[in-house]
Automatic annotation (TrEMBL):
PANTHER family: N-ACETYLTRANSFERASE EIS (PTHR37817)
InterPro entries xref list: Acetyltransf_17, Acetyltransferase_Eis, Acyl_CoA_acyltransferase, Eis_dom, GNAT_dom, NAcTrfase_Eis, SCP2_sterol-bd_dom_sf
Listed name of the protein: GNAT family N-acetyltransferase
Keyword match Ubl conjugation: no
Quaternary data: Homohexamer; trimer of dimers.
One Pfam family cited in the UniProt record for this chain: Acetyltransf_9
Domain N-acetyltransferase: 1-153
Domain of life: Bacteria
Length: 407
């Protein structure tokens, strides 16, 4: 078997192979497929070929930026289009692809890789761990009234500005600008490169699928938030693709707008952020039902010291991490020291505080999973009683990580 890099000339073969791996057919035109092929970076993609040159597997990567705790933005490889033909599964093709890809990412100097997992049992063995989570919030229209804020002077009580209803085709530049401001402040968020917006690659509202956009403007008329939505599927339902804004007051205004829509029986907020206060703002707390809670972004550390020293930290202390990377056959031990919001990470032979798999480190890296949870689950070993609490304090972010970009 041969694993080789691809070029633009391989786009058709690559696309046919990944579609066959998932038992699907390519759409007759780019417009019908959401034009996701236009976002592929063929210079970052791989093909697995049999001895006689037949393509049997694929793996690709996008060039993204990932926002870390502390509003620090770093490059991250977005792993995508990973698949093996049914006729060649369980023959080592996937492992060979993933190993070659990790080698190439390291050679490019990238310290982090991320992906969305089609199945939760696949990617842990390659060192990826679930790091952000998402869910739906379903609100019954007839019970959707928002209560008046009880505390004066809060962001929720300080709503200003206006909402304008536009169509997707009318406001692409506004969406791109507002999203970019949002993702730079939200831990766990990924960039959406201009080529995604311009070609309509991805899911709504990135794609050019018809959508209504409730665009919020501040008191000076500057767009500072939007809600993308559609109605009718299922009947009587208004589905919100995403609400993008950097402030709770604007989110509340946009939520009130969609909750007040006529001829609707329920509103479904997809990608509802963890810890968001909207349920508490409902006059009837039970009117909002959380469902479809699932993992979203998975994280893999490629250069552990670089990754740990890149993010911001809100607590101080030091901890020794003993890290196993069975897929790459690596084992390391580091002293992580945090002072004044910054970390140092150096090899050490000190006794460990925690022993963990590199996939567990990926899960706790953005602050969305407490190390103590993985200790209780039997994944991480705490070597003394205070180790888990110390790790929780160090890795906790200033706000929960959240990612809603599909790739």
């Amino acid at each position: 078997m041969e694993i080789r890099s691809t070029t633009e000339k391989d786009l058709g073969v690559f696309a046919d192979t990944i579609h066959a791996a998932f038992g699907r057919f390519r759409a007759p035109s780019a417009e019908d497929s959401g034009d996701w092929l236009s976002a592929l970076e063929m210079e970052r993609s791989l093909l697995a070929l049999t001895a006689d040159g037949r393509p049997v597997g694929t793996a690709g990567a996008y060039s993204f930026e990932l926002t870390l705790p502390g509003e620090i933005v770093v490059p991250a490889a977005g792993v995508t289009a990973v698949g093996v033909l049914p006729s060649h599964r369980r023959q080592g093709v996937l492992s060979a692809l993933m190993r070659r890809q990790l080698e190439e990412l390291r050679a490019r100097g990238e310290s982090l890789a991320v992906l969305l997992a089609s199945e939760a049992v696949i990617y842990g063995r390659f060192g990826y761990g679930p790091a952000t989570y998402t869910r739906h919030l379903k609100v019954q229209r007839h019970r959707s009234a928002l209560a008046l804020p009880r505390a004066r002077g809060t962001a929720a009580a300080a709503e200003t500005g206006s909402v304008e209803l536009l169509r997707r085709a009318e406001c692409g530049a506004i969406l791109e600008e507002v999203y970019d401001r949002y993702r730079r402040q939200q831990p766990g968020a990924l960039s959406r490169p201009h080529r995604w917006w311009s070609s309509g690659a991805g899911q709504p509202p990135v794609s050019k699928t018809p959508r209504y956009l409730a665009v919020h403007r501040d008191a000076d008329g500057v767009p500072d938030g939007y809600a993308s939505y559609s109605t009718g599927e299922p009947p009587g339902t208004l589905t919100v693709d995403e609400v993008i804004t950097t402030g709770d007051a604007v989110f509340t205004t946009l939520a009130r707008f969609v909750l007040g829509h006529d001829l609707i029986t329920q509103v479904v907020f997809k990608h509802f952020p963890p810890g968001h206060p909207l349920r508490w703002q409902l006059a009837d707390f039970r009117a909002g039902q959380v469902s479809d809670h699932t993992d979203w972004l998975w994280v893999r550390l490629l250069d552990i010291p670089r990754a740990l020293t890149a993010r911001g930290w809100s607590a101080e202390g030091e901890i020794v991490l003993d890290i196993d990377d069975p897929f790459l056959g690596e084992h390391s031990r580091y002293l992580l020291t945090v002072r004044d919001g910054k970390a140092g990470c150096v090899p050490t032979d000190r006794e460990p505080d925690l022993s963990l798999d590199v996939s567990d480190l990926g899960s706790v890296y953005l602050g969305g999973t407490a190390p103590s949870t993985l200790v209780r689950a039997g994944h991480i070993r705490a070597h003394h009683p205070g180790a888990a609490a110390l790790a929780d304090s160090l890795f906790r972010g200033d706000r929960p990580p959240h990612c809603l970009h599909w790739f």
